[in-house]
Write a structure and sequence with these properties.
By secondary structure, the chain is mainly α. The protein contains 2 helices and no strands. The two termini are about 20 Å apart. The model has no long low-confidence stretch (mean pLDDT about 90). Helix content is about 35%, strand content about 0%. The protein has one domain.
């Protein structure tokens, strides 16, 4: 989420009062609900996270 929010903060979406930021749900913390980068960058990030044993995730 941190990585996605960092990327989202670089777009105009972060300023919008829309469902892209979860603004349509009263009381919900604002966070970007999409990955604001290219598909190759997304796949590279997924591969990086997997190679590090899913660092940052709590797997049960």
């Amino acid at each position: 989420m941190d990585h996605a929010n960092e990327l989202g903060a670089l777009t105009l979406l972060s300023d919008a009062n829309s469902w892209f930021m979860g603004s349509n749900i009263p009381g919900k913390k604002r966070a970007i609900l999409l990955y604001a980068n290219t598909a190759p960058a997304y796949r590279a990030k997924c591969e990086e996270v997997a190679a590090k044993g899913y660092e940052g995730f709590q797997l049960q």
